[in-house]
Each structure stands twice: as C-alpha cells, then as structure tokens.
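S.,

Sequence below, as promised.
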Amino acid sequence: MAKNRRYEPSGSVRLLGVRHLQCFLLFLGTSVAFAMRVNLSMAIVAMLDTTSTTPGIPVYNWSEKTKSVVLSSFFWGYVGTQVPGGYLARKFGGKAMLLYGVLISSVLTILTPVTAKIGNWQLLCASRLLQGLSQGVFFPSVHTILSQWAPLEERGLLGTFSYVGSQFGTVVMLATSGIMISSSYGWPSIFYISGFVGLLWVVVWVKWGASTPSDFKTISASEKHLIESSIGHTNEESAQNMKIPWKRIFTSVPFWVLFCVHCAHNWGFWTLLIEIPSYLKHVLNMNIKSNALLSALPYTVMLILGIVFAIISTVLSKRKCIPLTLSRKIFNTIGHWVPMVTLICLCYVEPGQTTLAILLLTITVGINSAVTLGFQINHIDLSPNFAGVLMGITNCAANITGIIAPLAVGFIVTDVTSAEQWNQVFFIAAGIYFVGNLLFISFGTANVQPWNDPLPKPQELSLIEQKPSNING
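The prediction came back faster than expected:
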C-alpha cells in the first residue's frame, strides 16, 4: 500500500508563499459562498413581516409550509452537482469551476428581490435551486485545488483555513443582517450586498487564483519544488485524462468509512443547526434567534477553535510526534464525541438554566470544528488525484442525510414542548456521532490508496520494460 509522502524543505522557501495566497482566496470564496447560502434564512423573517411599514419594500404572505419549501430549495439543487463537480474540477481545473459557480450564484443572488417580486415564491424556489446547483461544485473544487497546493505537513492548516470561511461568512451574515434589514433599503440589501461581494471575489479570483502551482507563473522554484516533492508531481495533462477508478473506489474500505463518517457528521450538524433553536425556545423558553450575538457566538467559537486545532495539528505534524492517521482519528474524535456528550447533557438542562444551555450549545457547535482535521480532509489523504471526486460523492450523500435529519425530527417531535420527545432526537444524533466516529477510528486511514495512481497502459509497460536495456546500452 502506498504511504503518504514526506518532504524535507530544500533551498530558501518564504514563510508565506503563493500556496498561502491560494488558501486565503479560498477562505474568502467560502465566506461569500456561505453568506449567499444563508442570506435567505436571515432575510425571510423580514420578507414575511406583515407589520412592516417601510415604503417600497415588498412583503409576502407565505405559509409556514411555503417558507419551508423556499428555504430547502437551495439544498435540492446543491446535492445535484456534487459528483459532477468533482469530475469537472479534475477535467477543467478547480479554478474554472469555482469561478463559474460563484459567478452564477452571485448574479442570481442580486436578482433575488426582483425574482420574488415578479414570480412570487415559485420563481424564487427555481432561483434558489439554480443557486444550489451552481454552488454544488464548490467543495469538490476546493478539495481538488487543495490536493494540488497543500504540502502534506501543512495540509491540515491550509485545509482548515480554507474551510473556516464557512463559519466566517455565517457569523458576518448573522451579525450584519439586522443592520441591513433596518436600513432604508430593507431586506433586499442583504441580497444586493452579498451578491456584489461575490462578484468582487470573482474578479480577484480571475486575477490571482490558480488550479495548480504550474498555473501560477510567478511562483518561486523553491516553493514549487516543496509542494511537488511533498504531494508527488503528476503530469497535469495526464492527471486530467486519468480514468476514475470507480470500481476500486467503491470496493475500498477506507472510502466507505469516510462515506459513513461524513453522513454521520451531517446528521448531527444539521440537527444542531436547524433544530436546537426550536428546542431552546419551546422547551427552555429561550429565543436565541432574537439575539444576533447569541446566534453568532457558537459559530464564532467554531471559527476560532478551527484555527487553533489547525495550528496544533501542524506543530504535531512538523515535529512528527504522532502518525498522520492517528492525528486524523484524534481530531475527529474530539469533533464528534465531545459534541455527543454535550448533546446528551443538553437533555438534562432545566428551564431557567440559560447560561448552562448557551455554554453547552457553544461547546457542541464550536468543538465540532475539529473534524476539519479529521474526516473532512481525509479525501485528500486517500487520493490526491481524485480528492474532488471523493468529496463530491460523500458530500452528496451527506447533504441528503442533512435533509432527512430535520424530516426525522418532525416525525419524532409531534409536541414541540415535550422534553421527552426532544431527548429522543438528541440521543439519536449522539448515537450516530458515536457510531460514525467509531468506524473512523477502527477502520479509517490517512494512507494514500493504491487506486490513486493509474495503472500503466500496455504501451507504457513495454517502454518501462525496455528502459533497463537502453540504460545498460
């Protein structure tokens, strides 16, 4: 079995290089993508506020069922382009896929107020579905780019920094949505501003983004050598033309373990994100959504802890204190089993224990960021050549799981004030966290899989066989 490669820096390599620039751009791109993803959740309260007297700002009379359909429409499109996104990112480069994905999403975001005005909720659903389709290529493309830019010892740090943009974009949107809604431009300003920022990122990405080190013409020879000696240099044209080893992927135990732990993560995460506020409101008599600072606190902690965990992981990796596989399992265990415990503890919080409930919620969401150094970067460990494809497959299934989880809650919780019914929800989520991580620590690995490298073609084998005789001359 092929092992992960190690590199020893040679020559003079700057502390901050082009690889860090690429990850900073990915961080900004992830931020604007998530801002455009959650903006409707922030704006829809004002869109349905029939008591609003702001002149010229439309207000809609949609039922709760219609509201749910509108909010979910993004994700029905989102799961549709996960697997194709990974394939297309390999074929045409991650830069191109991110460019078109964010561009389409930004334009549709800016047009959202007009869309709702001329086509009501039906056309808005169609627009959000298209936004989901355009953003479905995002994570597979980011994984594809990281697989080409992140040296092994920096993979956790650069990968985490790229992905914490999701928390940053969410926090910024939560913190500023109230200001934008209360302005003279009203709720439409949320879509205008987030869409315009998305277009601004597209311009910057066109100028400075690159799919591979070879695409960035001014990269230093020492940094390029550092990256390529770490991940193993593969001819770009050859890599793009590699056939995806579907059979070997789907018969790979490490892949199926990664598949299961990703689905387990999304079940728990979306249960927290969507259902916890309802539990706090109806069982503990807390309305956390009414307080922007409280709403943003768990994601702010998640952002900070994500960076802290990444720094710790990088130090451990550079000092070679523990094997990479063990490191992935430790951080994933922190990210899944600590929230498992706090979820169970949340079941025993009594009404009136507001501080304790907020503390447990913040720990549950915040500590979850450790998984960015566990399963979330494991796709690149298993197969740098097909990381985007693997992410597309597992993220597609995981987001379907994320859609099913709230539906399961609706089936279990028939009385939103019943603590006993909510306890069933949290114990199920905790159990899924437990099983998913148990599979990962039992059977997961960070070793490059044999199917990462293509099997030589017959004509290539004949050339290889001829080489010794040519050398001996």
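The first helix runs from residue 18 to 47.

Coffee later?
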